[in-house]
Structure prediction request, 310 residues.
Amino acid sequence: MYNFNHLYYFYVTAKSGGVNSAAKHLRISQPSLSSQLKVLEGTMNTKLFQKVGRNNQLTQAGSVIYGFCRQMFEISEEMGEQISKNVPSASRRIHIGVSDEVDRSFVVEAVSHFLKSHGLAQRPKVTVVSGTHDQLSERLRFRELDAVVTQLAMIDPQLENLEHAEVPVALTCSMKWKMTSNKANLKVGAAIRAIRGGDTVQWLMPSSRFKLRAEIDHFFEENQLKGRIVFESDVIASLVRSVIDGVGIAFLPLLYVAREIREKSVRVIGPKNGYWKYRVWLTCHTQNKDDILIRALATSFNEICKQALE
Prediction:
């Protein structure tokens, strides 16, 4: 009889593509995992992995054994999924990952809408965690998370791009600032000059590791924009706050400043349809795409996105 834990460790290692990520997922040390895989190879009297360049790949025997392990453990996962689907929603827990680049207030609004769509007695418990896109993708692949809101589409065949929003990126400033023009169709240079004192513009920027920052830098280069960066942050909400306070101006997706525009604390300079489009994705594991609660979350995500663009 084979050791069940050893088979599971082998399954996770093969599924994740390497000992490193498997050890992190299993929360054991890399040497310990490697040692237990060697015990399994000894028990089976065959090599399961072979070194190809810097990577470990399954041997022919390893591929056959992985096929059996996959059947075993995917049936177990399917059983858990079917049981959870028949449990009342009030007993369910939904774990949502939010990429560091995505504005938290937008996600909170979508989650609140999702919870309010259930009666008090039927509301599931929602847990929200943050991380990088890659970290959340890995956790979603191992189904530690039920859904992820991120700035990048998933390319892993095990993961589903359930919904996405394509929103304008607008030039924004504080309502406190006086404007020399109120025209809505201004080109970016004219829009900046429309701000009183626009020749000495102060810029608020997202972190240099963000996709949004790369898009802004590209737009700056294309349009030969200049100015002094006075504030840089990896927290989008802090950029929005700085715009409201009149610290400087910023290119921000309308999705992240929709409430502030409605409340008239932030002004859009130039066209409201923005200068380019920014995308936000709601993703899940392919085996969860038909889950009734994940579908309800997708509906809430869509409705909040539509409200932001009205």
